[in-house]
Structure formats: C-alpha cells, structure tokens
Amino acid sequence: MLDLIKIGSFISNVRKEQGLTQKQLAERVGVSDKAVSRWETGKGLPDTSIMSDLCEALGININELLSGERLDADTYSGKAEKLMVDLVKDVQNNKKDRKIEILGLLLGCLLLLVGLFGIMVVGGGRLVYYLDAPSLIMVLAIQLIIEGAGGQLQGFIQAFKLVFGKTDNSEAAIAEAASKSEYAIKFAEKAAILGGVLSSIMGFVTVFAIVFRQNYEVLGPNLAVSVLSLLYGVLLALLLMPIHGRLHKMH
C-alpha cells in the first residue's frame, strides 16, 4: 500500500528545498494551502488531475511522488512495478471494505426489523405509542435554532450535498469542504440530543406542574410523551452519524 506519511514528508522536504511556502506551492498547483498541509501530514493524496502540475512545481516525477523518495535510473523500473502492485492492492482493499460496509448495513437493517417486530409484539402492535408530532417539531426547532446561532446551517446543508449529490470539484476541494461540513454535522448531532433533553425537561415540568394536580390517570401517558422528545433527539443524532462517518472518510 502507498505510504501516505512518507509521501507527505517527501513533498514537504522537496518543497522546502525549492524554497517554497505551502501557500506558494498551493498557488502554483491551483489548490488551497490547507490541501498542501493535508498532503504533507499524510492525511491524503493529491488529486490525480493535479499530480502532473505538482510534480512540475517540485521538479520530480509521478513515480518519485508516489514512492516518497528520489529515484535513480537503476531503481526507477523496479519502483514503478511496485507502485502498480500497490495501487492494485489499494483498489482491491477498497472493494473489500465496501463489501463489508454493505454487509454490516444489511445486518443492521435486519436486526432493526426484528427489534421493531418485538416492540410490536410487546406493545400489542401499537407503534402509535412512539409517535408524537409536537415533540418531534419541538426537538427539530431547538436543533435548528442552535445550528443557526452557531453559524453551522450552511455547512449542515453542504454535508448532504457532498454525501448524496454529485460534484465536479477536485478531490482536494471535496476534502476541504468535507472537513468543514463534518464539524457542522457533529454540531448538529449534539444539538439534536440537547434539543431532546431540553424538550423532555419542559415536558416533565408541564406534567408535574399541571397534569399531576388535575388527573392522576393521565399522568403515565403524559410522562411517556415527555420521554419521546429525548428519544427523537437520540434518533436524529443516530441518523446523522453515518453522514458524519462518510464525511470523515472524504477528508
């Protein structure tokens, strides 16, 4: 497999030999200085569309770039063959990882269906116990307020575009956008849970302050509705976690 740390260190050393800063190299290649920083810290590879420009700016060739070292005439051919083998292995490993992800997803869905069936059996088939539109609206409202106040709404929307949409941007640009959107999704996960907690607390206060004094018979159902807000908050956070994971892989 390609050694990203070695490649990054090589890019950094050659850049310094050329007397270039990260910003100057980024301008020559047409990327941001953050993208150059990612390469040099071993967090990613340059996009294939700019590898030639990067090599030209650094005075190296692509084989040397992917090897992470200078190559002389004697070792050039052998390194080229090794790089081809490493690239094939990377492709095969990616396909294997993809299969494992799909199997895990299918298994999770199957277990979820079994769990829902068990809930229906225990609850007499009444899934309506878990539905309460006002509670869900309250949690979503609090989540959106927190995201808006934190300036993360744009990044939150961009996250869905990156994961589910198509883009013609370079890998470096996608990685940079994914890094910003990942924070927005992480922020949204916390906001969803806090929204659920706050809405539940408000529900409990209402129940004990009003319902408790009026009618004991409806105390249980009202407490159950109050807990639903917390459930919705956790579920929203869980739904955002796969998007969080996809964004993390992108950068």
From TrEMBL:
Any GO MF annotation of the entry: DNA binding
Source organism per UniProt: Pseudobutyrivibrio ruminis
Keyword annotations of the record: DNA-binding, Membrane, Transmembrane, Transmembrane helix
Name recorded for this polypeptide: Helix-turn-helix transcriptional regulator
Segments forming domain HTH cro/C1-type: 11-65
Stored Pfam families: HTH_3 (PF01381)
Coiled-coil blocks: none
Source organism superkingdom: Bacteria
UniProt-listed InterPro entries: Cro/C1-type_HTH, Lambda_DNA-bd_dom_sf
TM region(s), chain numbering: 102-121, 127-146, 191-211, 223-243
SUPFAM superfamilies membership: lambda repressor-like DNA-binding domains
